[in-house]
Amino acid sequence: MNIKEMRDKHKVVAEYRYNLGKVDKGYNNRTLYVNVGDNNIYEKPVTKLMKEKFIGGKGFGLWYLWNAVNEKTKWNDPENEIIISSGPLGGITQYPGSGKSLVVTLSPLTGMPMDSNVGGYFGPLLKFSGFDAIEIQGKAQNDVIVFIDGNKGIVRIEEAPYEAVDSHVLGEQLTEMFAENEEDKRNISVVSAGSAADHTLIGMLNFTFYDVRRKTARLKQAGRGGIGTVFRDKRIKALVVRYAGVKGNLNNPADQETINRTGIKLHKEIHDLDDKQNKMRKIGTANIIEIMDAYDLLPTHNYKFGGHKDTYKIQSKVFMDRITQNVPDGCWYGCSLSCAKAVDNFELKTGPYKGHKVTVDGPEYETAAGVGANCGIFDPDYILECNFYCDTYGVDTISFATITAFLMECYENGILTSEMTGGLELKFGNSKAAMELLHQMARGEGFGRIAGLGIRRIKKWLVEEYGADESFLNDIGMEQKGLEFSEYLPKESLAQQGGYGLTNKGPQHDEAWLIFMDMVNNQIPTFEDKAEALHYFPMFRTWFGLNGLCKLPWNDIVPLSNRTAAEPAKIPEHVQNYVDIFNAVTGMNIDKEELIIQSERVYNFQRIFNIRMGYGKRIHDRVPYRSQGPVTVEEYESRKDRYDKQLKEIVDYNIEGKTTEEKIKVLRAYRQEQYEKLTDAVYKRRGWTMDGVPTIEKLKEIGMDLPELIEVVKKHL
C-alpha cells in the first residue's frame, strides 16, 4: 500500500481549529490538551503560577501530571498523561543546543514521574505552532495519530490502521504523508515508539528531524523509564507536527541582540576548540570510551570491571571511521556542536530488516559502553546493529544493555539456565544471543517478554519462581528505584554513587556526573564538598530541562577563560551565557543564584511528587552494592592491590591472614557507612529531613510552599 492509499484509509475522529497567535518573550501562554480516549481537544492557559514556579519544559510537564493523577494512579491507567514541552528558550536558532523537548509521564518501571530530555524538531515546531506544551491523556480504541498543522491552525486525531509501527519506517511514512512537497519535509517532526514498546516496560520514544542532505528522517530518543510503553499503551501510533517558517526571531525575545551576540561567541569557541577538546563534531558523545577504560570507569561484565583488554576494538576512532564525516549533524537549527552522528548505508545482518541498508543514529557513548563493554561484546558492527534495532523497536538502549548484562551474569552463575531462557546462551560476549533477545522483545515472544520487564521484576521472578538468592541478586542487579543504571562505573567515586542514588527519577547521570571531580581530580574531598556538588550540579542541570536546552554546549566545549576560573567545574562563563539568554528572551532579570532557585522549586516539587506516589524517601535512595564495591571474590581480586591498600590505610584493618571473603565484608561495611554519611550531608544541604523529605521551612525559603505540597509533606514529617 502506498502513502496516499494509507492516508485515504485514515478516519478522522476529532478535529479542533485554533487561532495561530504569536509567541511573546518565549511563551505562547497556552497549551494543548488532547484526550485520545474521549477525543476531546482544547486549549489551556499558561498561568502566572506556572511561569513563576515551573518555568517550562519538564516543570510544566510535572505540574500537569500532578493535577492529572492521584496517589493511586498506575502507569497504564487512562488518567496517566504524557506531556511534551520545550520551555521559554526552546527554539532559539542562535545558541547551540536550544531545540530540546522534555517528556514527562508516570513510569512503568518506577511508578514515579519520569522525565526525559530529547532532541529532534518536535518541541520547537510545536511551540511555533502555538503551544507551550501538549498534554495527552486517555486510551484510544484503535491506533491513532495526532496531527498538528501549525500553519493552518488544525489539530486532528486520526485512526491510522496501516502504517508501520517501527520508528525508522513510520517516521519516513508520516514525513512523506504530511509534507506538502519535498522541501516541506524539513517542517515535519514525528514522535513514535516501536513494536517492542508494545511488549516491554522499557519502551522509549523517537523524535524525528528531517536530514535534508541524507534525505531521511533521523531519530533522537526520549529513552528512560518506559515512556514509549505508556505511549503505545494509549494506542498512539504517532504524534506529527508540521510548521513551515522557522526563523531566528520567532520567540519574539525582549533582547534579540544579546541572544545573537552570545550565540556568536559560543559558535566561535566550538569552531576554534572542539577539535582540540572532545571532537563532538567528529564522533559525538562516543568520544570517551577509551578514556573511561583508562580510568577504570567503563562498565564491563555487568559493572564488575572498569575496563577490558579488547576495548581498543570499540574505541572512538573505530566509530569515527564509520561515521559519515563533514556533514552538519545538529538536531536543531543553529547547533554547531553537531553531535548527532550517524553511520550511513549500514547493512543489517539480522532480524526483519536483514539485508536493508540503513542510517544508524549513533552510537552514543551510553549505547557503545552498555550493549558493548558491559555485555562483554567488543564488536562495533554488533553495537551498530543493536543500536539501530533498539531505536526502531522503541527500546531504551541503556535499560536493554544493563538488563542483558545482569542476565548474562545470572546465566554464568547458574541462576539462569538455557531451559529458562528458551535456549538462549546468555554468556558475556554472546552477541548472537543478545540480538535474539532484542528481537524477541519486539515480537513479544519467549524470554524476551521476561527480560523486557526490567531488572527489578526479573529479580522478583527469579526469587519467587526459582528460589534464587535474593541478597545476591540485589547486590548485582544494577537498578535503583526500578530504573536501570546508566553506563558509568561509580565504585571508586562516592560522589557519583550519590549522583546515581540521590536522584529523583533513578540512576541516570543527567543530574550529576561527578566522577572526574571526585575520583580523578580530588576536587571535592569532604562530605560537605560532595554534598555541595550534589546540590549545585543537579539543580543546574535541572535548569536545562526547564528551558528546552541541551547540556552538551555547557561543558563539552570549554572556553579559554576556564583555565583561570575560580570554579572551573561549573564553566562559569557558560553559566553567565545562560543567564544572559534567559533574560534576553523573557525580559526578566535573574542572576546565577536565581537560576539555581528556579531549579530548586521544581526539584523539590518532583521529590514531593515521588513521596505522594509512595516513593522518594531514604529507603528508596539506597543503591545496589555492586555500584559501591566488590560483590564477588573475582571482583575483589581483580583490584586486589587497590582494595588491600584501602583496607590498611583508610579502614585501619589488618589484612594479614584474612580471606578475600573476610576482606570483602569489612570493605563493604565501610563503604556502605560512607554512603549513609554522604546521604546525611546531601539531605542537610538540600534542606530535607534525614528521611529525605523536603522541610516546610525549605519550601518557604524557595517560595514553593503551595498548599497541596505542604499537605503531602506534613504527612511524612
UniProtKB/TrEMBL annotation:
Cofactor(s) required for function per UniProt: tungstopterin; [4Fe-4S] cluster
UniProt GO MF annotations: 4 iron, 4 sulfur cluster binding; electron transfer activity; metal ion binding; oxidoreductase activity, acting on the aldehyde or oxo group of donors, iron-sulfur protein as acceptor
Domain Aldehyde ferredoxin oxidoreductase N-terminal: 27-245
Keyword Iron part of the UniProt annotation: yes
Keywords: 4Fe-4S, Iron, Iron-sulfur, Metal-binding, Oxidoreductase
Superkingdom as given in the UniProt entry: Bacteria
UniProt entry tagged with the keyword Transcription: no
Family label: Belongs to the AOR/FOR family.
Stated name of the protein: Aldehyde ferredoxin oxidoreductase
Organism: Fervidicella metallireducens AeB
